[in-house]
Automatic annotation (TrEMBL):
Species: Spirosoma radiotolerans
Statement: the UniProt record of this protein carries the keyword Transmembrane helix: yes
Name this polypeptide is given: Glycosyltransferase RgtA/B/C/D-like domain-containing protein
UniProt keyword Transmembrane present: yes
Residues annotated as transmembrane: 20-41, 100-122, 179-207, 213-232, 244-266, 278-300, 320-341, 353-369, 381-401
Keywords on record: Membrane, Transmembrane, Transmembrane helix
Length: 574
């Protein structure tokens, strides 16, 4: 029988907060939804091109059922992304196109689905909704904007987390239908991304701790099927072995990476260069790992036959869920630390993966709350959780909102480059990937599968193909520095009398004209103080340019009299 913790009468302030709990919870939810709606754009980036558009072309061109099934199951780099591909097909057959903005919004539904699952778990504690407040603040924030605003990570990480945690929740419930649903969800999770394979281990541990041996046998059988389906005709083992070899040859760095990634939510000084940046997340990761270890020890002890502790059924179910969740999340932390370390230590705090520390933080908070034996202890947990979560939430929006805003303009600018120059969406000039991207984007646009979005460039788009005769402007003074990987080009600080809208640095050769979105409006100071911008600055990425010499200028659509101007500066791309 479930034990209900009595909630004593509270003071006037706490009573008011409890009455406002729905509004307070809705705040981070509404802000996050608005954030994604605002900055999601219909532009593919890098792996999106092959994973969604290339797949759609191949699937529709396939003439037999076996070829179509093959295209659904064939891996994309190191992962099978079956759910993402099925969602893409559904969109294509319902609308006639592949829209990346809508793919991002569908991924958002899986993030919100995870929140709903955690809310359902929380309700089993029979506590006031106010105690749930830290969860949406921890989970729904933009530290992982490169997952929430990018199609391929969104339809991998968000999907696999939602499906795996849902599967583990179903495993803690009684009934054959729940068990069948758990197996189905976990197989789908495993086929959505390799990270889902850790859910198979987590599910087996849940069933072993609950001593449900018949179900464990069924789970093992389902796991064998999932593993066979995943690794059948799989050809990415070479890169995995190289990454593992690097980490094993740098064991201290790999151990540090594990803790840094665990505490990545506390990457509080992201602008600091060098190893000092990783001190806060690494220390936080050590503390969180120690806390989880103590929680797991306490929870597992309750399942031992000799244990004198007799927790209620609902708490035992929650304990099983938390243990499974930790196995899944820490397993993925270890995988990312081991297999991504060779790409640079900064990957441990890269936005693409930050959703895992965010989900882990929510589980730790709910776990501590669940283990508290009285309302007073739970109240202390709530106060600490609310303080930490709100501070993280405010910090995340303060730092990453401008980054997301800049990324939107960068993607729209890059889409224009791809449309007119067949390069721009993450490819390096002259590589096989660039050739594939050119072919896929051309064919997708030709068939109407993909439509380029409008942007700040659209009103002056026609000028970009007619500027070869534009003379240099002796009045336009620019500084160009760099070489090798990139140049940084910028005008004088007060180059324009009137405030500019979105602008771009422009480079032009005899054959091509390409744009790079200006960074000036998105510096922390300019963005948050809403300062008028009177200059243009951008990094010219050389690897996306065809070798040659390029004139450097600016594109300022808000300057209707002279939206395109060139300086006397040039850059050489070898």
């Amino acid at each position: 029988m479930s034990t209900v913790i009595a909630v004593p009468a509270q003071g006037r302030l706490v009573s008011r907060l409890q009455s406002l709990a729905p509004v307070l919870i809705a705040l981070p939810v509404g802000c996050f939804i608005l954030f994604v709606f605002t900055y999601a754009v219909n532009v593919p980036w890098f792996d999106d091109i092959d994973a969604f558009l290339g797949f759609t072309l191949a699937y529709t061109d396939a003439t037999t059922l076996s070829e179509k099934i093959y295209n659904v199951l064939v891996p994309n780099n190191e992962h099978r992304i079956v759910i993402a591909k099925l969602i893409t097909l559904a969109m294509y057959y319902l609308t006639g196109e592949v829209n990346f903005r809508w793919l991002i919004l569908i991924a958002l539904l899986f993030i919100l689905g995870t929140l709903v699952l955690l809310a359902r778990l929380f309700r089993s504690m029979q506590l006031p909704w106010l105690a749930f407040l830290p969860v949406p603040f921890l989970l729904l924030q933009p530290e992982y904007y490169l997952t929430s605003l990018w199609s391929i990570p969104g339809l991998q990480h968000s999907v696999v987390i939602c499906l795996t945690l849902s599967s583990q929740y179903m495993l803690t419930q009684s009934g054959r239908s729940n068990f069948a649903l758990a197996i189905t969800l976990q197989i789908l999770a495993a086929l959505s991304m390799s990270n889902g394979l850790m859910g198979l281990i987590a599910g087996g541990i849940i069933l072993a701790l609950s001593r449900n041996w018949y179900r464990l046998g069924g789970w093992v059988a389902g796991s064998v099927i999932a593993i066979w389906l995943y690794f059948y005709n799989f050809q990415s083992a070479g890169r995995t072995s190289d990454s593992l070899g690097y980490s094993l040859s740098h064991p201290v760095q790999a151990i540090g990476a594990f803790f840094t990634f665990t505490g990545a939510m506390f990457d509080l000084i992201p602008t600091v260069q060098g190893s000092w940046r990783y001190a806060p997340p690494t220390l936080a990761g050590i503390v969180l790992a120690a806390l989880v270890l103590s929680l797991v020890y306490r929870m597992v002890r309750g399942f031992l036959p000799a244990s004198s502790e007799k927790p209620d059924d609902e708490r035992q179910k929650r304990r099983l869920f938390f243990i499974g969740g930790y196995v899944f999340l820490f397993g993925n932390v270890a995988i990312i630390a081991l297999l991504r370390l060779r790409y640079g230590y900064e990957v441990m705090v890269v936005s693409n993966y930050m959703i895992y520390p965010a989900v882990m933080a929510t589980l730790i908070y709910l776990n501590v709350l669940s283990e508290c034996l009285n309302w007073r202890a739970q109240q202390r947990c709530l106060k600490v959780g609310a303080l930490v979560s709100i501070l993280i939430w405010v910090f995340a929006y303060g730092i990453y909102w401008p980054k997301a805003a800049y990324r939107k303009q960068m993607l729209l600018t890059s889409a224009m480059n791809q449309k007119h120059n067949d390069i721009g969406l993450g490819a390096t000039w002259g590589t096989p990937f660039a050739n594939m991207a050119r072919s896929v984007m051309r064919e997708s646009a030709k068939r109407g599968i993909y439509h380029y979005p409008t942007s700040y460039v659209t009103p002056v788009e026609s000028l970009l193909t007619a500027t070869t005769s534009t003379p240099n402007d002796s009045c336009l003074t620019m500084q160009v520095q760099g070489g090798g990987y990139s140049y940084v080009a910028q005008t004088e600080p007060l180059a324009y009398k009137n405030a500019l809208g979105q602008a771009a640095i422009l480079v032009q050769s005899d054959k091509r004209t390409l744009l790079y979105a200006s960074e000036i409006p998105f510096t922390l100071r300019n963005f948050w103080l809403n300062r008028p911008v009177t200059s243009v600055k951008a990094e010219i990425i050389n690897i996306m340019l065809e070798p040659g010499r390029y004139k450097v200028g600016v594109l300022t659509p808000s300057e209707s009299n002279r939206p395109v101007q060139f300086s006397c500066q040039t850059v050489a791309v070898p």
